[in-house]
Write a structure and sequence with these properties.
Blueprint: H1 2-10, H2 15-22, H3 26-33, H4 41-50, H5 56-60
Helix pairs in contact: 2-3
GO molecular function: DNA binding
Pfam family, one: HTH_3
Domain HTH cro/C1-type: 4-61
Length: 64
Amino acid sequence: MIKLKEFRSKQHLTPLEMAEQLSISLSQYYKLEEGYKKPSYELMERFAKSFPKANMRLVFFDTE
């Protein structure tokens, strides 16, 4: 997900730091970031807790 990568970059986080924030492996994070895997409900809950001000719709879903 290109938007996830953009979000991570704006937060000044490495892929490893982002994976740790979400409590997932680095390989799982890369699959999310590249769009090979969709986020689970549990992952989206962890994302919301880690980044409460983020708009998850813009990060995870195609809004165009």
